[in-house]
């Protein structure tokens, strides 16, 4: 298959406008004849379901939580980008486009990224109209702050709860359509497979997480809005329920999986405290606006800190290494996440880490408090400081926060074209579940922007073009493919339940996470990746021989849920390693030790790797086939990324 991005021709700033005009429309009277399934009800899913129902389509929305309000989008803290230029500091749609392309290390599609920047301005108006309580300046205008990878202030925020407030806005729009009878909501229901007929997506198979009932649902189109796969690492900032199952099952039905090795490591997380942890806690990147990142200049001072012989405040300024400010004077502490993360790892690897394990750096607000007052800092970040103190027992107003990088977001996902369609016609992917907008590294505050852009402003246009072409004939849920897919799901569940091994699901998940973090984490090399591939294959074999899944299907069975998801993570982990091995360049969050500049920065190979890697599933236990979508840059110049 030749990957056709379907990017419109013509000037960059006119592509989306022309594309909307050239797309086929479904007239209002016919929209009610079409049914659309939306899987996932976070920002992308809730906004898409609400928007499509508002247009007149019949929508079924599925979430495995008890309420869409519990989607992981709620955890986003610091803000959402938009090119409003309220600060009059030189921002524009083109600058947001450029910052996003550059931040992704020139590994994303120009047309998609420009559209994202273009519609960003509408997202803020939409959310304000919904009542989202964005922070405001003294005069009542919406406030902005800066985030890493940009030299302007374009991030709108609601204290440290931006994701929660945006999700409540989308949820209110969704609830309105549920009340109107336009959306049927299926909570506590997990998608287990996609049903395809003649190569087109025509429905899904689900499992009721309370009763275990396996059901099929038919529709004219299916939208996957199921988030990222960071939990393949076990320890991450994701909710424990976050998983790859929906996207992975779609992949095995023909949807190509793109750039799986692109994992974002967030630099501002509370460090690991022990083996007892099941997840990690994110501290908003917005803290880097006022917090200064540092470690002691010498290993000896760091050792004294770790032993408790001295306190952070005992270290004089001349003995502190504000390494981001030293190495990147133009951006300082607001370098992009991949740069900040790798530098934190480097200083800790040198032995200058500041906590008991040596895996932490300081984020210090002393100077900001002295400059602006504690009350001012409390007004900006109070709830984040409170959260940190509750978790660590330390008062960040009096002693510096300790932070360390952790797995956060995944830029890879299902390959989609300009219409957000996967390689399976009728199957769309939105938000973090697709690969499209962030390249090899996501800039902070852009995840919320992409999820809402896809749901509110992109897919409502592009799906109409597809539906108009296939026509509104009812979908036959009695087609043999539905029964076949349902049987496949039941057989897979029974296989897991029948193993009756000796080791828990968490044992295998933790083992996989350790392999992925050790060999496919912040830095990779060919030797380690080759070793990891063999280790994952052995772990997969052991999983299917010795995992213990208690209980039965016909009940609430969280062990069974986890086992099914970990089985998919084991397969995905191997593909991530294959993708990382294949891409023998460094770019953004994918850092190959063999490919770096003399001063340790990521060194791209544009001649050989300026493409999106899209993998095609062939058969169980068979190598996947790599397809390449060339990335053509007509509006930006490919340069070595520099934040100095």
Could you walk me through the main structural features you see in this protein, from its secondary elements to its overall organization?
- The protein has 644 residues and is of the alpha+beta class.
- It has 18 helices and 19 strands.
- The strands form 5 sheets. The chain has a 5-stranded parallel beta sheet. Strands 11-15-14-12-13 form a 5-stranded antiparallel beta sheet. A 4-stranded antiparallel beta sheet has the order 16-10-18-19, covered by helices on one side.
- Helix 11 packs antiparallel against helix 12 and helix 15 (505-520) runs parallel beside helix 17.
- It is globular.
- The model has no long low-confidence stretch (mean pLDDT 97).
Features:
single chain; 644 residues; alpha+beta; five-stranded parallel β-sheet; five-stranded antiparallel β-sheet; 19 strands; 14% strand; globular
Element layout with pairings:
Elements: H1 15-22, H2 28-31, E1 35-39, H3 43-55, E2 58-62, E3 80-81, H4 93-103, H5 110-130, E4 155-156, H6 162-179, E5 183-186, E6 189-197, E7 200-208, E8 214-218, E9 221-224, H7 245-251, E10 257-258, E11 263-269, E12 292-296, H8 299-307, E13 320-321, H9 323-327, H10 337-352, E14 361-364, H11 366-372, H12 374-392, E15 401-410, E16 413-414, E17 427-429, H13 447-470, H14 480-499, H15 505-520, H16 526-546, H17 558-582, H18 606-609, E18 611-616, E19 625-630
Parallel strand pairs: 1-2, 1-9, 2-5, 9-17
Antiparallel strand pairs: 3-4, 6-7, 7-8, 10-16, 10-18, 11-15, 12-13, 12-14, 14-15, 18-19
Helix pairs in contact: 3-6, 3-13, 4-5, 5-13, 11-12, 15-16, 15-17, 16-17
């Amino acid at each position: 298959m030749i990957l056709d991005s379907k990017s419109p021709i013509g000037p960059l700033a006119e592509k989306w406008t022309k594309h909307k005009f050239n797309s086929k429309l479904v007239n209002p009277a016919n929209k009610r004849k079409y049914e659309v399934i939306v899987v996932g009800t976070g920002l992308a899913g809730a906004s898409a379901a609400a928007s499509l129902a508002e247009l007149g389509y019949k929508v079924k929305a599925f979430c495995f939580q008890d309420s869409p309000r519990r989607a992981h989008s709620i955890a986003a803290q610091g803000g959402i980008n938009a090119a409003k230029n309220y600060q009059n500091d030189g921002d524009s749609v083109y600058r947001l486009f450029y910052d996003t392309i550059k931040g992704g290390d020139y590994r994303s599609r120009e047309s998609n990224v420009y559209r994202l920047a273009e519609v960003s301005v509408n997202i803020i108006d939409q959310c304000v109209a919904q009542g989202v309580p964005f922070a405001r300046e003294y005069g009542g205008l919406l406030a902005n702050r800066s985030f890493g990878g940009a030299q302007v202030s374009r991030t709108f925020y609601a204290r440290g709860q931006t994701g929660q407030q945006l999700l409540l806005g989308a949820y209110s729009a969704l609830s309105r359509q549920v009340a109107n009878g336009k959306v049927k909501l299926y909570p506590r229901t997990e998608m287990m497979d996609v049903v395809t007929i003649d190569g087109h997506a025509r429905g899904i198979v689900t499992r009721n997480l309370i009763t275990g009932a396996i059901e099929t649902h038919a529709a004219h189109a299916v939208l996957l809005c199921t988030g990222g796969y960071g939990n393949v690492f076990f320890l991450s900032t994701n909710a424990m329920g976050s998983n790859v199952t929906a996207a992975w099952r779609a992949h095995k039905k023909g949807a190509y999986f793109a750039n799986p090795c692109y994992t974002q490591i967030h630099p501002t997380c509370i460090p690991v405290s022990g083996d007892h942890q099941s997840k990690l806690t994110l501290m908003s990147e917005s803290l880097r606006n006022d917090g200064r990142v540092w470690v002691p200049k010498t290993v000896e001072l760091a050792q004294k800190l770790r032993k408790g012989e001295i306190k952070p405040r005992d270290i004089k300024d001349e003995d502190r290494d504000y390494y981001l400010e030293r190495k990147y004077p133009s951006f300082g502490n607001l370098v992009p996440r991949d740069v900040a993360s790798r530098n934190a790892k480097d200083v800790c690897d040198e032995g200058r880490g500041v906590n008991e394990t040596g895996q932490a750096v300081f984020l210090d607000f002393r100077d900001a408090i002295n400059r602006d007052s504690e009350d001012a800092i409390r007004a900006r970040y109070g709830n984040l400081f409170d959260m940190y103190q509750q978790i660590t027992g330390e008062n960040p107003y009096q002693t510096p926060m300790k932070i360390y990088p952790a797995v956060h977001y995944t830029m890879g996902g299902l390959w989609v074209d300009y219409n957000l369609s996967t390689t399976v016609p009728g199957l769309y992917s939105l938000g973090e579940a697709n690969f499209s907008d962030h390249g090899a590294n996501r800039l902070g505050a852009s995840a919320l922007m992409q999820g809402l852009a896809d749901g509110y402003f992109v897919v409502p246009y592009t799906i109409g073009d597809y539906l108009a072409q296939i026509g509104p004939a009812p979908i036959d849920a009695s087609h043999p493919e539905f029964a076949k897919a349902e049987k496949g799901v039941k057989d897979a569940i029974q296989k897991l339940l029948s193993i009756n091994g000796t080791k828990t699901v968490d044992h295998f998940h933790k083992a996989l996470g350790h392999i992925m973090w050790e060999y496919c984490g912040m830095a990779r090399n060919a030797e380690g990746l080759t070793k990891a591939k063999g280790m994952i294959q052995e772990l997969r074999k052991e999983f299917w021989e010795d995992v213990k899944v208690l209980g039965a299907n016909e009940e609430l069975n969280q062990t069974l849920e986890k086992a099914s998801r970990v089985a998919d993570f084991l397969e995905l982990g191997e593909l991530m390693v294959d993708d990382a091995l294949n891409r023998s360049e460094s770019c953004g969050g994918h850092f190959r030790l063999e490919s770096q500049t003399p001063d340790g920065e990521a060194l791209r190979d544009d001649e050989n790797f300026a493409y999106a890697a899209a993998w095609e599933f062939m058969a169980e236990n068979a190598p996947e086939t790599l397809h390449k979508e060339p990335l053509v840059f007509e509006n930006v110049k490919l340069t070595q990324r520099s934040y100095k």
